[in-house]
Design brief:
- There is one protein chain.
- By secondary structure, the chain is mostly helical.
- It is 80% helix and 0% strand.
- The radius of gyration is 32 Å and the shape is extended.
């Protein structure tokens, strides 16, 4: 009987979880359309107000400052609605990579309304119409231009900056490449094509980076709050599981109860509270103990749920990374160009900041806090011997890898940055 009841509860919880997940997914997918429709309706409302005011036959009403003020307040309200929903449309469309052409007619009407009130928008990338010079090109010229314009979107083929080094320093190579590009007849087309490609890489990298953060976090929180935690609490309650899952929780609960008992005794001794009998004192302690037991039982259930939910979040992260190789390659290319594009002093500053935080003199205290926080999050008793062993080995390994990277790659890519780093360390 109990088993059937538990199975039914599991089925109900799982069914509710699937329904909620489906609704959340549909709501997320429909966000661009929903936001654009709200902005479109607000734009239609503004056009309706303008039409009613223009067709009004009552001259006194049209010249009345109070009426104009009220109409202007309504228009300002609708303009605010348009701006907020256009921002939501732009962000959601960017994250979902939504390219539906059904949006264009509504966007054109919204742009028409906003231009009347001198409001600039950046809802979509402008479509550049070909000019007369481009239309007059021969097929050979068009093919020559397309050689640079039709760049590959496969970012996995992009070679990292560290593999582009040669005998000469990178600064001289950049100078020679710039002169060579300027002397080409189609140098302008190549520059524009490279700029557009860099923009696509940046957009794909930011989109993938946000997905790698948002999807695992949403998966972890939804699975924990709506599925795993209720199931764990129900199971522990039906099987009368232990209140504490480790000795640290038990010691913390005992300290809290001892502090409460000492506080009661102290208040009675200094007459801040009415004198109570031993029986009443025991009843208050029992009530407090039950309250503490419920609190730590919930903490134990939460810790167990965190383990399962974190595994699901990690699985979601792996799935997103495996199914979005193009975005991962874009992130690598973006970070590569960002790191090696910094000035020498900026590189040295970031390296020193990183090493001082993670492998510096004060880093063991930070690592200890991080590891103890992870242990508490997962409901694991913090093993200080294992923590000290980790602190004695991992930062050393990390420091060795960083020094090898500086010697192997940074030293040949940017020798001046290595010199600046040595001077700053001295």
């Amino acid at each position: 009987m109990v088993k059937n009841t538990l199975d039914n509860c599991k089925g109900d919880i799982f069914g509710n979880f699937l329904k909620i997940s489906h609704h959340v997914y549909q709501w997320s997918i429909n966000t661009p359309t929903r936001a654009l429709n709200r902005a479109y309706l607000a734009a239609l409302s503004i056009k309706s107000i303008e039409a009613d005011y223009a067709t009004s036959q009552d001259g006194e009403v049209k010249d009345n400052a109070i009426i104009v003020k009220y109409l202007q307040s309504d228009i300002d309200k609708y303009l605010a609605i348009i701006k907020v929903n256009l921002a939501e449309f732009k962000v959601s469309r960017f994250l979902l990579n939504d390219r539906h052409q059904s949006y264009w007619s509504k966007i054109l009407l919204i742009e028409e309304v906003l231009k009347k009130y001198h409001i600039k928008t950046e809802t979509i990338e402008p479509v550049i119409a070909p000019n007369v010079e481009e239309l007059a090109r021969t097929p050979q010229q068009v093919n020559k231009y397309d050689k640079y314009a039709r760049l590959k979107d496969d970012f996995t083929q992009v070679k990292p900056v560290s593999d582009k080094t040669g005998v000469l320093p990178r600064s001289l190579n950049r100078t020679f490449n710039k002169i060579q590009t300027d002397l080409k007849g189609d140098g302008e087309a190549e520059i524009i094509a490279n700029f557009r490609r860099d923009r696509r890489v940046t957009q794909a990298a930011i989109r993938c980076f946000l997905l790698l953060i948002i999807i695992p976090v949403i998966t972890q929180q939804i699975s924990k709050q709506f599925f795993i935690l209720p199931l764990v609490e129900q199971y522990r309650e039906q099987h009368h599981a232990a209140v504490f899952i480790n000795t640290e929780m038990k010691e913390e609960a005992f300290r809290e109860l001892e502090d409460f008992e000492a506080e009661l005794k102290f208040e009675n001794l200094i007459s801040l509270a009415p004198v109570i009998s031993t029986v009443e004192n025991e009843l208050e302690l029992k009530e407090k103990a039950q309250e503490i037991a419920l609190e730590f039982s919930h903490k134990s259930s939460t810790a167990i749920s965190n383990v399962c939910a974190d595994l699901l979040g990690l699985l979601a992260f792996i799935i997103v990374a495996l199914t979005n190789k193009r975005g991962i390659a874009a992130i690598k290319s973006f970070l590569d160009n960002l790191m090696y594009g910094l000035s020498d002093s900026a590189k040295a500053f970031l390296i020193i900041l990183f090493t001082d935080i993670f492998v510096g003199f004060h880093s063991p205290h930070g690592w200890e806090v991080i590891l103890e926080g992870i242990a508490n999050h997962l409901g694991i008793e913090a093993n200080h011997s294992a923590i000290f062993l980790f602190i004695a080995t991992f930062p050393v390994i990390l420091d060795t890898i960083l020094k090898y990277w500086i010697f192997r790659y940074l030293n040949r890519i940017s020798p001046s940055a290595v010199a600046t780093l040595k001077n700053m360390n001295e």
